[in-house]
């Protein structure tokens, strides 16, 4: 296995990002990782060799902060080979319940930060004619659940963005994969990683039930973050990685059901679809 690659992972102080960083270090890769607070990242990773690990305090909502992170990474390690956009958080609530700040903040981290990091890494990837971009979306970016409309909107955006990005950068030898995980046993369902609409409107009983169901699932999710870390490393080693990858049996099953539903809807409305042609 080639361990010459330099990785940059966003949102690495907990959850999937932390599992990935630990696995990369253990496997002998060189890694730069971002967090809102470098101190919490260093504490989470534990003892490390400065030649191998570069903790970066980055404000992902700032283009300048993001681009400096890539400059520091290349300055420290001499290059960059793999970008993993892992930073993100869940946001729940009915569309009319969410205020403008809650909506904007979620798009700033879940979508705009992904755009900023890709804009910052591409000059390096174009110059070296190689590189991997791995964007962490969610099964909610294809088969979303009730009560998570805004989260689904951000993750659909990441999926669509990644699909076109893959085509756009192919001629430079750059590969893009959008990963759609199901439920993994991380801190994702804890208060630190979830935001709910402050303004709750009476009557949205199905949404409240959905949120309670997810809260009850915390600690019993089927997905193992360490196994996911291995899958992500294998993606960067794969000469032909998939563009879309659903991880977790729950994600696979939800995607399969959605594809069946889409196929049925398409055929049922086929006559209407063609009725608008000249």
Describe this structure as you would to a colleague.
This protein has about 280 residues and is an alpha/beta fold. It has one domain: 3-Layer(aba) Sandwich (Rossmann fold). It contains 9 helices and 9 strands. The strands form 2 sheets. The protein has a 7-stranded parallel beta sheet with strand order 3-2-1-4-6-7-9, with helices on both faces. Helix 5 links the parallel strand 6 and strand 7. Helix 1 packs across helix 7, helix 3 packs parallel to helix 4 and helix 4 runs parallel beside helix 5. The longest helix is centred in the middle third of the chain and has 29 residues. The mean pLDDT is about 90.
Key phrases:
278 residues; Rossmann fold; 7-stranded parallel beta sheet; 15% strand
